[in-house]
Every structure is written in C-alpha cells, then in structure tokens.
Amino acid sequence: MAVKINELEIENLKRVKAVQMTPSAAGLTVIGGNNNQGKTSVLDAIAWALGGNSFRPSQPHREGSVSDPYLHVVLSNGLVVERKGKNSDLKVTDPTGNRAGQQILDGFISKLALDLPKFMQASDSEKANTLLNIIGVKDQLTALEKQENDIYQERTAIGRIADQKKKYAEEQTYYPDVPQAPVSASELIRQQQEILARNGENQRKRDNLEHIKAEKRRLEMQIADLREKLEAMEAQYKSCADNELTAEKTVAQLQDESTSELEESIAQIDETNRKVRANLDKDKAEEDAKQYADQYNNLTKQIEDIRKQKKQLLDGAKLPLPGLTVEGGKLLYNGHPWDCMSGSDQLKVATAIVRELNPECGFVLLDKLEQMDRNTLAEFGEWLEKENLQCIATRVSNGDECSIIITDGYSESTALKTAKAPSSAWKEGEF
C-alpha cells in the first residue's frame, strides 16, 4: 500500500506561524492564499520533514519568532515524523512506539515527489532516461537508437551519392543512332583496300583493252605493206579480233564500286566513337544511380524495421501513463514533446513518472498551480483520484477550489480560532 500523509502540523517555519491540515487521501489538496502568505513554506516543511536535511531551508526559523520550528507529520503506515527543538532533530516513531531515523523514510519516500520541479526542469534526455529506467528498456532502446542513427547516417550519405549519380546521368548526352560499341577503323580500311584492289584490276583490264586496240590499228597499217604475209596476218588479225570482242563484253559488264560511304565512315569514326562512349558513360551513370537508389531504399527499410522494434519494445513495456512514450531520446505524451505539452499535461506526466519511480510513495508536492484554470484543475484532481494519488499543492487563490487558505502564516481554521479566542486558540509550539 502506497504511503500517504494523514495529518500535518507546522509552526514557526519560514513564513508559517501555525498550520494544521488533514490532506485528502486521494486527489488534490489545494493550499490557497495570496502571495507571501506561507503557502510554499508548507511544502518546504513537508519536504524537510520527510526528505531529510538535503531539503532543509537555509533559514528555517520564522523571522520574529521566539520558538523553534516544529514539524509533525502522521503517515498512513502509522509512522509519526517530527522535527523540533533548537537543532530541529528528526524523530520517527513507529506504531509500536519504537524510534527510527531517516533511513526508514528513505525506503518509501521519493525524493522527486518532494521536489517535482527538479524533474520538470530536467533536460529532455534526462526525462526520457528516467522513464526508460523505470520500464527497464533503456539499454535495449539505446542500442536500437544507435543502430538507427548509424544506418540513418549511412543512408543519408548514400542518398547524396545517389542524387549526384542521377544528376550526372541526366546531364550526359545520348545518341540513339550510333552503334552500341565503338567502330573499328582498321575493318573499314580493310574493306576500302579490297574495293581499291578490285577497282585497280578493272583499270588494268581497261588499259589492256586500249593496248589491244592500239595493236589492231598498228596491224591494219601494216596490212598494206605485208600482203605477202596476209594469210598469217589475217589469222593473227582474226584472233585479235576475237580477243577484242571478248574484252569488250567483259568490260561492258564491269561496274566500279564507290568508296565514298567508307571514306565518310572513316572520316566520321572519331565522332561516332565519341557518341558511343558518351552512350556507354550515360548507361554506366544510370546503373550507378540505380544501385545507390537501391541501397538507399534498403537502408530505409532497415530504419523502418528498427523503428518497429522500438515501438514494439515500448508497446510491450508497462508505462506509467497511457499515451506516454520515448522517441528520438525525447519524452512524448500523446505525440507531443515536453515543450509542446500544456502545463497540466506536464504536471500529469511528471506526477505519473515520479510515482512510478517509487510506487510506495503515494503522494507528491506541487507548487504554483495557478497556471491551471478551474476546469483543468478539476480534471487534474479527478485523474489523481482515479490513480489513487495524493497531491498537496499551492495556488494563488482564495476560491472554493482551495482546501485551506493560508493568511499571514496561519491556516484559515487556525486564524478563525485565533480571532475568536486570541488568548487561548493558538500558542507557539503547540496546537
């Protein structure tokens, strides 16, 4: 059973002259009053009484009082805690009358319950670490977050390279009308030489025809002078004539091949190969860009998988408040980081976490609840009751939302008694 404060008596501490109160066992007990009346002094007194000398005020003695501070707290587990005398020595008495010291209180009193602002003013990472330590997943989550961060950094670098490769590929010129591989100049030159050889043979045949014709003419001129050799020469002539006919037929069928296309190809080979290399460079750049894009997508999937593991880890943990989680080393409540939460949500989150730090401590102290409007205050009180938490808080107000009013160092009931019977209603050092 969580320990709560059943009764409280304070005298001559800081601004408090005499305050007696019985806080509600669950929900909100609001100490109201104007500024500088002693409201915060009540919380300081409780913190000192239960938290030890680390909470001792620098000047605990009320100014102008001849009596020493006196603190008397009755807890729900039967312990009675007192501080009184010149040195404000601590005395803890159990239900059987045995005495104990601060050590027994430290066993169930949460230091942050006495000093909630310390948690609220902590850094985002400190708040998150507090929660993760409570639910026992800090080391696992830290390892996952480091893994996620490493992959994220790698993915970022890969993404930059992929973008650069893609832009480089897009900037490359592409020629769709050229071969896929560079053209060989030696092959074109070989084809050219074969054609030139065939054309040379054709020319040789043409030259041969001219030679035969010249020989025929020479023979015709000699016929007249060589009648005596007519028969021989006629036979020779007939043979030559036959050769002429054959040669003419052959020459008539000849057709020279053009080397202009090959000459143009040879002349254009450097330009063609430049375009081919440009196409190959573009293809390579696009392939590089695709590979880096694939790597980027793969790393993105790894990050998503790690985030799922983190979510499953936190979803499976027993969190002190629904909607509370940790993401990126920050505390989130209903999706909002600490600095984007309302004041009431911050108080609710802080209270829930502090309670979970030491479930045996069933109360928290809160100062300056004037930041909440009446409706929000009521909602916060209902939440505390539902959680069976006791909260003793201060608020600059004299309204009916206050459980007691502190006026000039007195609780309202004490002040009323004093007004009715000033000589006997209250004496320093006793109630």
From TrEMBL:
> Where is the Rad50/SbcC-type AAA domain positioned along the sequence?
7-309
What is the species of this protein? Porcincola intestinalis
Q: Which GO terms describe its molecular function?
A: ATP hydrolysis activity
Establish whether keyword Coiled coil is in the entry.
Answer: yes
The subunit structure is: Heterodimer of SbcC and SbcD.
- Gene Ontology BP annotations: double-strand break repair
Regions annotated as coiled coil: 202-316
Q: What is this protein called?
A: Nuclease SbcCD subunit C
Q: Specify whether rRNA-binding is a keyword of the entry.
A: no
* Keywords attached to this entry: Coiled coil
Its family remark reads: Belongs to the SMC family. SbcC subfamily.
